[in-house]
Design goal:
Strands 1, 2, 3, 4, 5, 6, 7, 8 and 9 form a nine-stranded parallel β-sheet that branches. The protein folds into two domains: 12-181 and 190-255 and 291-325, Rossmann fold (3-Layer(aba) Sandwich), CATH 3.40.50; 261-289, no CATH class. Helix content is 43%, strand content 16%. Helix 2 (29-43) packs parallel to helix 3 (60-72) and helix 4 (112-127) packs parallel to helix 5 (153-179). The termini are far apart. It is an alpha/beta fold. It is globular. The chain has helices at 7-15, 29-43, 60-72, 112-127, 153-179, 212-237, 264-269, 274-285, 292-305, 321-325, and strands at 17-24, 48-57, 81-82, 95-96, 100-103, 132-137, 193-199, 247-254, 312-315. The chain binds NADP nicotinamide-adenine-dinucleotide phosphate. NADP nicotinamide-adenine-dinucleotide phosphate (NAP) binds next to helix 2. It is found in: Cytoplasm. Pfam families: adh_short. InterPro entries: Biopterin_syn/organic_redct, NAD(P)-bd_dom_sf, SDR_fam. Keywords: Cytoplasm, NADP, Oxidoreductase.
Length: 329
């Protein structure tokens, strides 16, 4: 009978879900690699109906380039076909929805909560509903690599705003937004799971000369992921767990040493930390910097398997079952 969905088709229809990634600092380097690898990895995965990317940074031209890369670049497989908004075919189960961009300055704290909430609402309304959400807190700045006695108050403020306060505000707005989602009975299907991924660094766990503000902020962010976990567990134990309806997990991920806007200036000009300068120059001379796409493929394997403990700190150099088992470098 026409219109009836049977057997395998029915199962497919029930299981298909929409994936959504929000990436801060998506205009270049690691953020760009996260976006492209997310599209490639989840776009080719069985059971994924569609993948939507929300790319955030201040650089429109950079975001346009990354958007184009996600939609059809070399690293995106044929399964990750990109549709223009006009030709999204909902019966095509492996459609990547076009990414959108939004100018968002993370140091603009006065507007950040409202603008970030706006982005979430607009995206959900325009492109949703989504079942699985991934928020990558990737933006960052090294700032001045000088000893703490040489940091200016202005530098302390900017570094803290971009590296710690903005990600904290984003998490706060996000968790509030998830809590306030409409119940499933209404027209909009709520997000059922959310993974918050803090792109971290070795400076979160070790003290390195010159990496004072950066290290303080990365340590704070790792603590943020743990505190969110503790609060979710607390809510689940308590009576009023309205906010714990969505399955939330957090992860801090140290991506490895890569040649980007953070390390190239050190290769070229050196910095106050001689050991770090030497290491960067050695890696540069030996082609030893880690390819961001290798790092992000490991991150996607970790997220896909979803076996990490919420609040965990994982480094790309760790030995992990996920990376042994999966088809990734
Ligand atoms: N490279 C490494 O070796 C390395 C090692 C460990 C950890 N990491 C981490 O990896 C992440 C990405 O770094 P990367 O190496 O790709 O650095 P990058 O090339 O300098 O990129 C940094 C990103 O952060 C964004 N950003 C900086 N300030 C911002 C602001 N005020 N508002 C909005 N966005 C801002 C930039 O976007 P716009 O300028 O376009 O706004 C850019 O997309 C960082 O969290 C970094 O700490 C990198």
């Amino acid at each position: 009978m026409e219109g009836l969905v049977k057997g395998e088709d029915l199962e497919k229809e029930i299981c298909m879900s929409a994936f959504w990634a929000v990436v801060t600092g998506a205009s270049r380097n690691y953020g760009a690699a996260i976006a492209a690898m997310f599209a490639r990895h989840f776009g080719a995965k069985n059971g994924v109906e569609e993948v939507h990317l929300t790319l955030l940074s201040r650089d429109e031209a950079g975001l346009e380039r990354v958007k184009a890369m996600c939609e059809g670049g070399d690293r995106v497989t044929a399964a990750c076909e990109v549709a223009n908004s006009e030709d999204i075919d909902r019966s095509d189960h492996e459609t990547i929805r076009p990414s959108m961009y939004c100018r968002l300055d993370l140091a603009d704290l006065e507007w950040l909560p409202e603008r970030f909430r706006d982005v979430l609402e607009r995206e959900q309304q325009t492109h949703g509903p989504f079942d699985h959400m991934y928020v990558f807190l990737n933006s960052g700045t090294l700032g001045a690599i000088v000893h703490i006695r040489d940091q200016t108050a202005a530098e302390v403020q900017t570094n803290m705003e971009v590296n710690l306060i903005a990600p904290t505000v984003i998490c706060s707005v996000l968790l509030q937004w998830l809590q306030q989602q409409q119940p499933a009975a209404t027209a909009t299907r709520p997000v059922s799971s959310c993974r918050i991924v803090d792109i971290s660094s070795r400076a979160a766990t070790g003290a390195y000369a010159g990496f004072n503000l950066y290290g303080l902020c990365k340590t704070g962010r790792a603590m943020l992921t743990k505190v969110i976990t503790a609060e979710r567990q607390d809510e689940l134990r308590g009576e009023s767990h309205g906010g714990a309806r969505v399955d939330v997990k957090t992860l801090s991920f140290a991506p490895g040493r890569m040649l980007t806007g953070m390390t190239l200036p050190v290769v070229e000009n050196g910095c106050v930390n001689q050991a770090f300068t030497d290491e960067c120059r050695r890696l540069h001379a030996t082609n030893g910097f880690l390819d961001p796409h290798v790092s992000t493929s490991r991150l996607m394997a970790l997220l896909d398997r979803d076996e990490f403990e919420s609040g965990a700190f994982v480094s790309v150099g760790d030995k992990r079952q996920e990376w042994d088992d999966m088809d990734c470098p």
